[in-house]
């Protein structure tokens, strides 16, 4: 049995401001929001990484995200939404239970695009790009 903050929220042992719930997914407000309305969407079952999710749970999670994005945007009168997953510790995942972030964005909020999460861009040759595309394709 893993000791996990989000499992405790799913089980009702920790309070949360729940905004959506069904059999397989739960969505609630982030406790330390990046913007008003910052919402997290989690599978109820404990899985650490996206690749650990069974197909049906992954599909359910995307469906919930798809519904929540416009709902969150309207609720806080935002101009746009950034959707993101920190998938793995090296990407900044702090809670090891899959969660999608729905972050409302406002004109002039200074937040930048997802591209801002990276520092220097790699200088990749055409050959290297071909190799990477082939490697991804083989494993897709
Ligand atoms: P990560 O860095 O793992 O992608 O994001 C984890 C998120 O969970 C953070 O944005 C953080 O504010 C949020 N969070 C951490 N603990 C709690 C909690 O107990 N309740 C809620 N609602 N959010 C939490
Ligand atoms: Zn968990």
UniProtKB/TrEMBL annotation:
Domain of life: Archaea
GO terms of biological process kind: methylation
GO terms assigned for molecular function: methyltransferase activity
UniProt-recorded name of the protein: HIT family protein
PROSITE patterns: HIT_2
The HIT domain, residue ranges: 5-112
EC number(s) from the headed UniProt entry: 2.1.1.-
The species this protein was found in: Halomarina halobia
Active site: 99
Keywords: Methyltransferase, Transferase
Motif Histidine triad motif, chain ranges: 97-101
